[in-house]
Design a protein that fits this description.
By secondary structure, the protein is of the alpha/beta class. Strands 2-1-3-4 form a four-stranded parallel sheet, sandwiched between helices. Strand 3 (110-112), helix 4 (117-130) and strand 4 (134-135) form a beta-alpha-beta unit. It has a single domain, classed as Response regulator (Rossmann fold). Helices cover 56% and strands 13% of the residues. It has helices at 2-31, 53-72, 92-106, 117-130, 141-144, and strands spanning 40-46, 81-87, 110-112, 134-135.
């Protein structure tokens, strides 16, 4: 029963984070009206394989479903949303490499994930330096306290 309640809480948290990231994407689109027709590229670093695959698999499916639904509804201010997902294999070093690739090579507007606290804590400083919003799916007080605008 505790595992089920934990999964439900995780699902609610994921939904809240998805809503927040979509809001960030809308703000980014509004801030750049000349680029509004260009696709909005979002990234995700998830544990689709490895020890935390039970988290990353559903997270990936949820994000893909939400992007598909958003695009079917006309996108965000007419711009289609593109999602770039990298699997960190539940490993910290792979999470950092994937996040850096999303920021430096793919040029994403924001990043979902990582799936686990250790991976999210490792990626957080890179995202802060690059000024790329990181909506960590993992839950840990050092990720969200203090809240960073």
């Amino acid at each position: 029963m505790n595992l089920f309640l934990g999964f439900l809480a995780h699902g609610r948290r994921l939904w809240q984070l998805v809503t927040a990231l979509v809001t960030c994407a809308v703000v980014a689109a509004i801030s750049s009206p000349a680029l509004a027709a260009d696709p909005i590229e979002l990234g995700a670093v998830l544990s689709a394989t490895g020890a935390a695959a039970f988290l990353g698999g559903p997270e990936k499916a949820t994000l893909e479903m939400l992007v598909e639904d958003t695009n079917k509804a006309g996108g965000i201010r007419g711009a289609q949303v593109q999602l770039v997902v990298y699997d960190d294999g539940s490993e910290v070093s792979k999470a950092v490499l994937a996040a850096r690739r999303l920021m430096e090579q793919d040029g994403v507007t924001a990043i979902f994930g990582p799936s686990t606290s250790n991976n999210a804590l490792a990626v957080l400083s890179f995202a802060e330096r690059a000024k790329v919003p990181l909506l960590a799916i993992a839950v840990h007080k050092e990720i969200s306290t203090p809240v960073k605008p």
